[in-house]
């Protein structure tokens, strides 16, 4: 392909609709933010008008602690299970202990001084 050839007309964005005018798009964005019109923004889940009583907060706090404890223990359980699985897989592939720190080598015992022949 030469650099002077015309561009392929199929690759040009001719079928796209023109962008909306600037004033229309800016008013939509500012309306979403709540900057124009003097209206308060509408939240999908509005906050409570007042704080809940102490018993409700205590129940919510206990539920949150139970959930966190459950997730924490499940994460540790999954981690330990994965570690043991990889260790077993390594043992199966290698045929012996895959940890190099527990390597048991068959070396000759050091010679005793009492058995030297003179």
Structural commentary:
By secondary structure, the chain is an all-alpha fold. It has two helices and no strands.
Describe the protein's topology.
Elements: H1 22-33, H2 54-94
Residues in helices, as a percent range: 40-55%
Structural class category:
mainly alpha
Number of helices: 2
Radius of gyration: 36 Å
Tell me what portion of residues adopts beta-strand conformation. under 5%
Instruction: Give, in order, the helices and strands.
Output: HH
The span between the termini is: 91 Å
Globular, elongated, flat, extended or rod-shaped: what is the shape? elongated
- Poorly predicted runs are none
Largest sheet: none
If you average the pLDDT, what whole number results?
75
Count of extended strands: 0
Keywords:
single chain, 118 residues, mainly alpha, 45% helix
Short description:
The protein has helices spanning 22-33, 54-94. It is mostly helical and 118 residues long.
